[in-house]
Design a protein that fits this description.
The protein is α/β, with parallel strands linked by helices. It has 10 helices and 7 strands. It has one domain: NAD(P)-binding Rossmann-like Domain (Rossmann fold, 3-Layer(aba) Sandwich). The chain starts with 6 loop residues before the first strand and ends with a helix.
């Protein structure tokens, strides 16, 4: 019961990894806040999360709508404060993928995917970060992808956004580790979700069909069990994949010594020295 009594806010919680994450955390005794665009689907997941002492709040909003996100952050924090003092786990999971060659892809597709997969999770994290730092406790979880460790064909926009998300998370971790926060990067490979059906074509239209690789991928509940176990163990970069995908992601894994050195720089007054140099 690693997360019992804690409050977790999960975006993209209406299906796939997000829904499986919500159910697993609730089963572990955590309270969950569920966000996404489909209020009806979120309500169905919330019903599954009413387990024992666990409670669930449905908080639908569009992640790229900055004012809506700020309003949701206020509601989420107030609800969480009544249960555990604040949000203990922020899971930035909402995202959209792509299936098109770069040479064919409209620039608008890049703008949309980067807005959803990179800027939106940064915005939500920044909206909560000050309060989490003040509590000196909490976890920030960035659901990236194997495509955020390795450039994958037909996913140039998706890889760009997911690489960027990892960069933000790694830099943020170096700053907040000494203040009691943990930052986890999760890089899933193929998981049986609607990610391929919802992916954007070159013209920005919805693809509408799945990939064989996705259909043969890990069950979301199995993938989430691995993620949560790694989080509980304090792992910072969590690769959840099999076969070829696991091999290429492991080849690009960041050595833990790098994370330690960056955190040590901050602990040694790196930020203060930079400010004095200015």
């Amino acid at each position: 019961m690693a997360f019992a009594g804690e409050v977790a806010w999960i975006t993209g919680a209406s299906s796939g990894i997000g829904a499986a994450m919500a159910r697993a955390l609730a089963a572990d005794g955590a309270h969950v806040i569920l966000s996404g665009r489909n209020a009806e689907a979120l309500a169905e997941v919330a019903a599954d999360c009413a387990i024992g002492n666990a409670s669930a709040l449905v908080l639908p909003f569009e992640v790229t709508d900055r004012p809506a996100g700020l309003a949701a952050a206020e509601q989420a924090w107030a609800w969480a404060a009544e249960r555990s003092g604040g949000i203990d786990i922020l899971v930035n999971n909402a995202g959209i993928s792509q299936r098109s060659l770069a040479v064919d892809t409209d620039y608008a597709v890049y703008e949309q995917i980067i807005a959803v997969d990179l800027l939106a999770p940064i915005a939500l994290t920044q909206a909560l970060l000050g309060r989490m730092v003040a509590r000196k406790a909490g976890r920030i979880v960035m659901v990236s992808s194997v495509a955020g460790k390795v450039g994958v064909p037909m996913r140039t926009a998706y890889s760009a956004a997911k690489f960027g998300l990892i960069g933000y998370a790694n830099a943020l971790r170096s700053e907040v580790t000494g203040q009691g926060l943990q930052v986890h990067v999760i890089a899933p490979g193929s998981v049986r979700t609607n990610v391929s059906r919802n992916a954007l074509n070159a013209d920005g239209s919805r693809r509408g069909v799945s990939d064989k690789g996705i259909d043969r991928g890990m069950d979301p509940a199995e993938a989430v069990a691995t993620m949560l176990a790694a989080m509980a163990a304090g792992e910072r970069e969590i690769i959840v994949a099999r076969g070829f995908e696991l091999g290429i992601a492991e080849a690009c894994r960041t050595p833990v010594e790098v994370f330690d050195k960056m955190a040590a720089m901050v602990a040694d007054g790196y930020a203060e020295k930079m400010e004095k140099a200015e």
